[in-house]
From TrEMBL:
GO terms for molecular function: glucosamine-1-phosphate N-acetyltransferase activity; UDP-N-acetylglucosamine diphosphorylase activity. Keywords: Acyltransferase, Nucleotidyltransferase, Transferase. Pfam families: NTP_transf_3. It catalyses: N-acetyl-alpha-D-glucosamine 1-phosphate + UTP + H(+) = UDP-N-acetyl-alpha-D-glucosamine + diphosphate; alpha-D-glucosamine 1-phosphate + acetyl-CoA = N-acetyl-alpha-D-glucosamine 1-phosphate + CoA + H(+). Catalyzes the last two sequential reactions in the de novo biosynthetic pathway for UDP-N-acetylglucosamine (UDP-GlcNAc). The C-terminal domain catalyzes the transfer of acetyl group from acetyl coenzyme A to glucosamine-1-phosphate (GlcN-1-P) to produce N-acetylglucosamine-1-phosphate (GlcNAc-1-P), which is converted into UDP-GlcNAc by the transfer of uridine 5-monophosphate (from uridine 5-triphosphate), a reaction catalyzed by the N-terminal domain. This is N-acetylglucosamine-1-phosphate uridyltransferase. It comes from the Bacteria. The keyword Protease does not apply. The keyword Nucleotidyltransferase applies. InterPro entries: GlmU-like (IPR050065), MobA-like_NTP_Trfase (IPR025877), Nucleotide-diphossugar_trans (IPR029044). Residues 10-193 form the MobA-like NTP transferase domain. In the N-terminal section; belongs to the N-acetylglucosamine-1-phosphate uridyltransferase family. In the C-terminal section; belongs to the transferase hexapeptide repeat family.
Amino acid sequence: MENTMENTKVIILAAGQGTRMRSDLAKVLHEVKGQPMIGRVLDMVGLVSPDEIYLVIGHQAERVKAATARYDVIYVEQKVQLGTGHAVLMAEPALKNYDGLTIILCGDVPLLRGETVKELRAKCLAEKLDGIILTVRLDDPQHYGRIVRGPTGQVERIVEYRDATDAEKKIDEVNSGIYCFRTRELFAALRQIQNQNDQREYYLTDVIGIMAGQGKTIGTLLTADAGQVQGVNDLEDLRRAEARLQSSPHCAAR
């Protein structure tokens, strides 16, 4: 496997407030074992060496900038939070002439490992995919988006829990929120998404259904390590991340 990710850009979504954290502090600035979550994500991305990192900021943008000032990132501001799809679109002006791969990460997933990101990119390249989703199977999928597959096992779409049918809620393969796309295909699909959903937001997940419906090739990389893709959405998640780091200090590295 390649040691670097030349001709690969990374977009990190870090604009949200995180109301379930019960704090005025931007979610990505909450600390896990003495370090802001966004710092842990950026340290991990540094290990996989993309050629550019775009950090999408919004809530408390100046504080997030101050906390990440030592990193070599390009800031993209999402002034109004209209969903994850809208957040990624904020980076389109900088990437509109770029032909390579773009990896999308979340600033509130502090335990993701660099080797997993490298594997995701490698599979996208090896199988000549237009997009790939990092997935995980969970005994209790809770409120994660479900991976909906067709009769031959092909990925058809991702359905958010709020919009899922009872049958779809029984699917145990879920979306981690981590992707790799061919950049032109990503933005072509993003320009087609709508906000006809329960939250009235522009979901990044909708690009999967759009691309699959147009005959684009969408793959998945299933990780057996659910802990590394656990998002931090509330104080209990934060405690779990702390405990995991305490028991395995290097789980977010390599």
